[in-house]
Amino acid sequence: MTDIALNESLGYSYAQARERLRSALEDAGRAKDAAKLLAVSKTKPAAMIRQAWQLGQREFGENYLQEALEKQTELADLDGIVWHFIGPLQSNKTRSVAEHFDWVHSVDRLKIAKRLSEQRPTHLAPLNICLQVNVSREESKAGVLPEEVVELAKQVATLPNLHLRGLMAIPAPAEVSTLSASH
């Protein structure tokens, strides 16, 4: 695919995603700025992220730490870019995440939250976090169990360098049923 075709394809996809978000917010009776589009940029080249940024996208999600850090270095000249860590987070990676990301969507235990808070540089705003909830109780998925969320949220809310923003969950796939109307 040529650079021109890639730009056109990315531009079209971005416009479609923005329209779907706008429509969903309108259908829900919510303000047009009530939600933001998060572009999952894992495995995508920095050049593509730059193109998306030029189109107006500012929020990007990564889950491979080393790859993300390389992209952040390459794209350091982009103003207003917001980095989200969306993957599983191991203790040995919390320092880099605390230092280089604006959001973490996968906090599932107090130990990780404490490390992020302790390792967040004081010159940066508090790290926005979401608690990952294993709503389907799948053994193959990470996340705190639903009955443990409130207690974890209470504990995380006391940590000084974190801002608890919400929950993240990836439920088990469900069959989609369609209803047919008869006249």
UniProtKB/TrEMBL annotation:
Pfam families: Ala_racemase_N (PF01168). Keywords: Pyridoxal phosphate. It comes from the Bacteria. The modification N6-(pyridoxal phosphate)lysine is found at K42. InterPro entries: Ala_racemase_N, PLP-binding_barrel, PyrdxlP_homeostasis. The keyword Cytoplasm does not apply. Residues 30-175 form the Alanine racemase N-terminal domain. The keyword Transmembrane helix does not apply. Its cofactor is pyridoxal 5'-phosphate. GO terms for molecular function: pyridoxal phosphate binding. Gene3D superfamilies: Alanine racemase. Belongs to the pyridoxal phosphate-binding protein YggS/PROSC family. This is Alanine racemase N-terminal domain-containing protein. It comes from Vreelandella sulfidaeris. The lineage of its organism: Bacteria, Pseudomonadati, Pseudomonadota, Gammaproteobacteria, Oceanospirillales.
